[in-house]
Write a structure and sequence with these properties.
82 residues, mainly beta, two-stranded antiparallel sheet, 16% strand, binds zinc ion
Length: 82
């Protein structure tokens, strides 16, 4: 599964910009693994034990900031880009 950059969605899963299917889930970045991991939606994250932590080492706190998976390196992604 390829991570994508998406505007903050009001609900999840959100529509994938390429396929249009409701497959997008929020993700957080693990600075230890240097990887993005899918996380539960914000309204569920407090109810899921271990959510918000790295699923691999189970102790690294996932963060919202990380390198953009598409390599654009910027939050200003113009719509309609091929
Ligand atoms: Zn990790």
């Amino acid at each position: 599964m390829q991570p994508v950059v998406h505007d903050i969605a009001a609900s999840f899963p959100a529509a994938h910009p390429t396929t249009g299917k409701l497959t997008l889930r929020p993700a957080l970045f693990c600075p230890t693994c240097q990887k993005w991991y899918p996380v539960p939606p914000p309204n569920e994250i407090t109810r899921v034990p271990g959510a918000g932590k790295c699923p691999k080492d189970k102790k690294t706190l996932l963060i919202a900031d990380g390198p953009w998976p598409d390599g654009s390196g910027s939050a200003t992604k113009s719509a309609g880009k091929p």
